[in-house]
Amino acid sequence: MKYTIGTRGSKLALAQAEFVRGRLSQAYPEDKFELQIIKTKGDRIVDKPLHEIGDKGVFVKEIEEKILSGEVQIGVHSMKDMPSRPASGLMFAKAWKREDPRDVLILREKERLEDLPEGAVIGTGSRRREYQIKHLRPDLRVVNIRGNVDTRLRKMEEEKLDGIVLAAAGLHRLSMQDKITQYLEPEEMIPAPAQGILALEIREGEEKLKAMLDALSHEETAAAALGERSFLQEMGASCHLPVGAVLRKEGEEMFCLRAMFGNESGSRQAYASVSGREPEELAREAAREIRSQLAGTVVLVGAGPGDPGLITVKGLQEIREADCIVYDRLAAPELLEEAKAGCEKIYVGKASSNHTMKQGEINRLLVQKSMEYEKTVRLKGGDVYVFGRGGEEGMFLRAHGVPFQVVPGISSCIAGPAYGGIPITHRGKALGFHVVTAHDRNDELADINFQAMADSKETCVFLMGLSKVGEIAGKLKEAGMAGSTQIAVISQATTPEQRTCVSDLDHIAEKVIREGLISPALIVVGEVVSLREELNFLENRPLSGKRYLVPKIGEKPTRLKKLLENQGASVDEVQVGVIEHVKPAFVLQNLKEGD
Ligand code: SAH
């Protein structure tokens, strides 16, 4: 068989591909292996630092396309340039023995790092190297250089840099060991994940070729590739954040993983070193350890049911201090305006059937943002825990080493009825209450103990039940409740759009449809519903249901807004002017002289 090996055209890439070809030809003398040079986007852009070009993958995409089309059978890349997963339709062979994973210093005049004079200048294109060099020698100045080994060596001479940092692997493969001044041990400088490891990429399903390549693999390197790249994935780091990891054997079947991570500006960095048997478990442990040193706090804040005034004092304070707010559909938009300038606001949706972001993704997002910011607020409608999945978020954060706090909120299950004029308990009418969700995981009517509800003299509140109100009424009657039992549905409770529909179990379904109530809505069943006639304070105010647009000058809310709102109106303000202080055109002296 003849196999074509795809590679970039740089000297180093060619050396790597040539190495692969050499080993394959030796192992499989009956087959033919030849190289094909492919130009990638990363090769075309040479004037920018890597973290500005964007994604990982800039050195691989064009090669992958040729493997997929069948023109090339084996792609050879540096594993550290690869995205965490192979592109769809492709797979990696097991890793071969790695080259030296260490970083090295090439110094122009001196022998060792510690010999460099104060303020000496070091060139590197990698922030991982930059941060760690500065960790070792805070006085050094680091300048950005890019390009291949020859270019960097030339720049060092031309620009009179005191030294540069490179990967040992590249220099070894180019037989340029003699240029190396000093090897930096992983204890001093943690290399990039998978540094010195080649990625051999082939088309999915090419089992025979995979077996040929796997036969030449190296156990320890395969473990290192798995552990180091799992760490990268754990940190969710695209190549713009500095991340390092190196896994080495430490006795019989034991590994040690050293890892580092830094934030965007380099103001915060953390290092971890963990030992154990399972590379992936070590990656998780190191990530947890690093997060526990670096992560900011995530605060789960209950935003209240809709009326922005129903946030707690503490919740509002957290919003004002937040560097990032992750919010969902039920959180009042006005609350976001309280955030400080520059706060990143991320909408994660959740209209019941149309989830913008899955819960798992939200959990991971929170962990990721905690590594970027001092304070991330997770703003959730109503209370954090009342059918809010706040528990899952807290557990995920804890398991990942991220500290979190909870600020409870006023739940719609209490506030909704109250704003609808219905007290959830009342002497002589309801001794307590049930609050249940009407939906189960599969969007079916949840397995609710209707019998217990029917047998008790307690108020029943159903959340997430608007579309099932007929079914709920039916089940309550089956369990023995009278068809004349009072029931209310309150839609968009505590907002200016609040609407309440009152009926009895026999007629509620039909009435809800007739009146066109929309979600979010909650259902209240029980004798307390009848108290609405006396306790409704909201929907029968003079301006209830009316909406006003109020122009204002300056940023402060107007008094008119308050007055209108007190009468039940909903008010939007538009700022149409600013107030500026002007210097008067006269001076005190003139004033004294004038009359
Ligand atoms: N954690 C929230 C509940 C989330 S479950 C809380 O404590 O309020 C979402 C359900 O809450 C909705 O389907 C609806 O039944 C109810 N809900 C939330 N806000 C509401 C509102 N303003 N008016 C009526 N129902 C509301």
List keywords for this structure.
595 residues, alpha/beta, five-stranded mixed sheet, 21 helices, 32% helix, globular, binds S-adenosyl-L-homocysteine
Q: Summary?
A:
The protein is of the alpha/beta class and 595 residues long. Helix content is 32%, strand content 23%.
Structure write-up:
- This protein has 595 residues and is of the alpha/beta class.
- 32% of the residues lie in helices and 23% in strands.
- The protein contains 21 helices and 25 strands.
- The strands form 6 sheets. It has a 5-stranded mixed sheet, with helices on both faces. Strands 7-6-8-5-9 form a 5-stranded mixed sheet, sandwiched between helices.
- Helix 20 (559-566) links the parallel strand 24 (547-553) and strand 25 (570-577).
- Helix 9 runs parallel beside helix 10 (279-294), helix 13 (359-372) crosses helix 14 (390-399) and helix 17 (469-478) packs antiparallel against helix 18 (508-515).
- The radius of gyration is 33 Å and the shape is globular.
